[in-house]
């Protein structure tokens, strides 16, 4: 998947739900990403291709995050071997 190319070595990613707080009941509108870079304590929201909630289902968001985390781990291992 194309997203794996954008993983940063040692970073961790997780799914972030997005709700439309301007509507009654704050309905869920999609899922986005949060990133924690090496040495940071907190996750920060990030956009993917300019969108804050590019995935409509939790399953697709989880798959993207899984690929990002695996690519991040591989890149970190490659850096350590260099």
Description of the structure:
This protein has 82 residues and is α+β, with helices and mostly antiparallel strands. It has one helix and three strands. It has one helix at residues 58-81; strands at residues 12-19, 28-36, 44-46. Strands 1-2-3 form a three-stranded antiparallel beta sheet, with helices on one face. The model has no long low-confidence stretch (mean pLDDT 91).
For the biggest β-sheet, the strand order reads 1-2-3
Strand content: 15-25%
Topology order in helix (H) and strand (E) letters: EEEH
Give me the secondary-structure category: alpha+beta
Distance between the termini: 25 Å
Overall form? elongated
Number of helices: 1
Report mean pLDDT, rounded to a whole number. 91
Helix content: 25-40%
């Amino acid at each position: 998947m194309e997203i794996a190319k954008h993983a940063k070595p040692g970073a961790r990613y997780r799914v972030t739900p997005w709700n439309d707080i301007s509507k009654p009941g704050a309905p869920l509108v999609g899922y986005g990403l949060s990133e924690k870079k090496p040495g940071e304590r907190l996750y920060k929201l990030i956009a993917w291709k300019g969108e804050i909630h590019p995935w409509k289902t939790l399953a697709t968001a989880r798959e993207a995050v899984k690929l990002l985390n695996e690519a991040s781990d591989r890149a970190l291992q490659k850096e350590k071997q260099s």
